[in-house]
Design brief:
Distance between the termini of chain A: 34 Å
CATH class of the largest domain in chain B: Mainly Alpha
CATH architecture of the largest domain in chain B: Orthogonal Bundle
Radius of gyration of chain A: 24 Å
Structural class of chain A: alpha+beta
Largest interface: A-B, 30 and 24 residues
Number of domains of chain A: 2
Radius of gyration of chain B: 23 Å
CATH class of the largest domain in chain A: Alpha Beta
CATH architecture of the largest domain in chain A: 3-Layer(aba) Sandwich
CATH topology of the largest domain in chain A: Rossmann fold
Strand order of the largest sheet of chain A: 6-7-8-3-9-10
Bound molecules: adenosine-5'-diphosphate, magnesium ion
Strand content of chain B: under 5%
Structural class of chain B: mainly alpha
Shape of chain B: globular
CATH topology of the largest domain in chain B: MetI-like fold
Oligomer: heterodimer
Number of helices of chain A: 8
Number of strands of chain A: 20
Helix content of chain A: 10-25%
Shape of chain A: elongated
Number of domains of chain B: 2
Order of helices and strands of chain A: EEEHEEEHHHEHEHEEHHEEEEEEEEEE
Distance between the termini of chain B: 35 Å
Order of helices and strands of chain B: HHHHHHHHHHHH
Chain lengths: ~375, ~270
């Protein structure tokens, strides 16, 4: 372990009989913004608490810059944390909240105050410095909590669903704010969320957590374009990726009337799942062929400039997403869906793992 | 209409509580002749502070006040230090059946009167009779179980995330307790302090049995009442009673702001 940044190795954690983390591995390179994404209750907060020293793992180690910090108490770890419910000290003013950590570490009052003012200015909370948290709105408390975590210039910044108590508009604004701050300070950051949109927009790397393990850690585009397994494929992307179970026969995927050529290697398993994102499918007027699927329109939805169709087909319901254009269609109408030959995903039914497809047939 | 009836009810209860106190205050300001005449005569026209002069001149009374202050102050200190130390490890214990709470409440079912003789014997054997410190220890022992439970609940009300924030900010566990948890739980701690102080100040039975020369104010007041027929004036006795209440009043006044301020701060964010 001599890399810089943060590493978790072989982390196991159980509460009574509930196993939360199982041999979890995670590496956060220096200066990166890693988003830990996963459904509620999958152990994201537990992971963050283990990193921060607020909780201890049953087995496994935490390293910072190659140094083992597994058993270091939180006050010796030099990390900052933003909590979901902000956790501002109610008996202190905003300024005191922000200087508290520095004062505890015996920094001179004048210097601590100067630093707090700098950050307050950056976060546009300077006029609030004399107020108590009870006199702030949720959005303002959020900023103060962020300021408190940043002002100490911690070695690692941890954020546990920091925006989940904000309304949608504020959430998007804070997102770009965080982005700006990270560009400026380049603090190694682990950001926890169950909101994929937040993850896709913020992360350098997304780490997908489920069933106690990191399922994939990759850039947002890779996670979206090359999900490592069925879980990731289902969890990332809205609406969900279309997945159809079928058989692989000599370079062709078959399910009912559908047959699509796929460039899988010859040792790929026979029972597979074919995936296509809703934007990869198209509606077609062409007569039925092997790559088209006849169906019946179940639902249409217009979301701003985007149109979504739910279509019932012989091999299951599929979703299509595209820009609003042309004549509106009526529910129940007969419709044909065309499957592309690129932008497809293939997974093994048995293991759920991605089966790589030959380059050239896959778009990016 | 409903408000009116509630206010009259409150008024009645207040009157019920206050009449004896009012009577004592008035009596302390009367010339003695009014209080021993039949029928009793209490008037506003011949107020005097003679009773207070006599009471303040009484060395045994003043000494009793001092002893009470020492005993009640010490007992309060012990209960807060020991009580908070005990409440801290209990504050995150939220099991459905709380054996520790049941245990501590069980101690309260023993009638205190049955403990007078045993405690006397123990202190005598330890050579601790007539020691103010020992008396305060006895009070602390009696008041601790209930105080621990109350303190524990006030500490448990402080959200765990605040403690976590403090630890991350660089506090040791003790610093997090001292700088974040305690100030936020201050109203509850103040309430317990008042509770212990008043109970220790007003206690009579153990004070009478366990002390000889270092008696507390309650014992000295009783002694004064016993000597009324030997010539001590009633206004002085009433004045002494009023004087004995004043320190308690001070403690309440000193701490009530803490209690109120906490309630207000809490309404803001801690619960939110
Ligand atoms: N202190 C605890 N005691 C018992 N179970 C816990 C405790 N903390 C978390 N858990 C359980 O561990 C699992 C993971 O929790 P958590 O890390 O908070 O998930 P997430 O943050 O991803 O929603 C959940 O099933 C939760 O019920
Ligand atoms: Mg969580």
């Amino acid at each position: 372990m001599n890399e810089t940044g943060l590493q978790l190795t072989g982390i196991n954690k159980a509460y009574r009989r509930v196993r939360v983390l199982e041999d979890m591995e995670l590496a956060v390179p220096e200066g990166q913004f890693v988003v830990l994404l996963g459904p509620s209750g999958c152990g994201k907060s537990t992971t963050l608490n283990i990193i921060g020293g607020l909780d201890s793992a049953d087995a496994g180690d935490v390293y910072l810059d190659g140094k083992r910090i597994t058993h270091l108490p939180p006050h010796k770890r030099d990390m900052g944390m933003v909590f979901q419910a902000y956790a501002l000290y109610p008996h202190m003013t905003v300024l005191e909240n922000m200087t508290f950590g520095m004062r505890i570490r015996r920094m001179a009052r004048a210097q601590a105050t100067r630093r707090a003012r700098e950050i307050a200015e950056l976060l546009e909370i300077e006029p609030l410095l004399k107020r108590k948290p009870a006199q702030l709105s949720g959005g303002q408390q959020q900023r103060v909590a962020l300021g408190r975590a940043l002002v100490r210039r911690p070695r690692v910044l941890l954020m546990d669903e920091p925006f989940s108590n904000l309304d949608a508009v504020l959430r998007v604004r804070m997102r770009s704010e965080i982005h700006r701050l990270h560009t400026r300070f380049e603090t190694t950051t682990v950001f926890v969320t169950h909101d994929q949109e937040e993850a896709l927009s913020l992360a350098d790397q997304i780490a997908l957590l489920s069933d106690g393990r990191i399922r994939q850690i990759a850039s947002p585009t890779s996670v979206y374009d090359e999900p490592a397994d069925l879980f990731v494929a289902k969890f990332v992307g809205l609406p969900q990726m279309n997945l159809i179970e079928g058989q692989l026969e000599g370079g062709t995927f078959r399910a009912g009337p559908l047959s699509v050529p796929v460039a899988a290697s010859s040792d790929a398993p026979r029972n597979v799942v074919l995936g296509a994102r809703p934007e990869a499918l198209t509606l077609t007027d062409e007569p039925a062929g092997p790559q088209t699927l006849a169906g019946r329109l179940l639902v249409t939805e217009t979301i701003g400039p985007e149109l979504r169709f739910e279509i019932e087909t012989e091999v299951g319901d599929v979703t299509i997403r595209r820009a609003v254009q042309g004549e509106p269609m009526s529910i129940g109408e007969g419709i044909r869906v065309r499957w592309p030959t690129d932008a497809l995903h293939l997974f093994a039914q048995e293991t759920g793992m991605r089966i790589p497809l030959e380059v050239g047939l896959r778009s990016s | 209409m409903q408000a009116l009836s509630i206010y009259s009810l409150v008024g009645l209860i207040l009157l019920w509580v206050l009449i004896p106190i009012l009577y004592i205050v008035l009596a302390s300001l009367q010339p003695e002749i009014n209080l021993i005449s039949i029928p009793l005569k209490i008037g506003f026209d011949d107020f005097g502070i003679g009773g207070y002069k006599d009471a303040f001149a009484n060395d045994r009374l003043m000494d009793g006040l001092k002893n009470s202050a020492i005993v009640a102050g010490l007992a309060t200190l012990i209960v807060l230090v020991v009580g908070l130390s005990a409440a801290y490890p209990l504050m995150r214990r939220t099991g459905r059946i709380r054996w520790w709470a049941i245990g501590m409440l069980a101690t309260q079912t023993v009638p205190v009167i049955t403990l007078v003789i045993p405690v006397f014997i123990v202190l005598r054997n330890l050579n601790l009779l007539d020691q103010l410190g020992a008396l305060s220890l006895v009070y602390a022992a009696f008041l601790l179980p209930i105080s621990i439970l109350i303190l524990r609940n006030f500490l448990a009300d402080v959200p765990e995330s605040l403690e976590r924030a403090a630890l991350i900010d660089g506090c040791t566990r003790f610093q997090a307790f001292r700088r974040v948890i305690m100030p936020i739980a201050a109203p509850g701690i103040a309430a317990v302090a008042i509770f212990v102080f008043i109970n220790s100040w007003n206690e009579f039975l153990f004070a009478l049995v366990l002390t000889g020369s270092n008696q507390t104010i309650t014992v000295r007041l009783a002694e004064l009442q016993g000597s009324v027929f030997e010539g001590l004036d009633i206004p002085a006795l009433a004045a002494a009673t009023v004087i004995a209440v004043i320190p308690v009043l001070f403690v309440v006044i000193a701490l009530h702001r803490t209690i109120l301020s906490g309630i207000i701060a809490r309404g803001g964010t801690v619960r939110g």
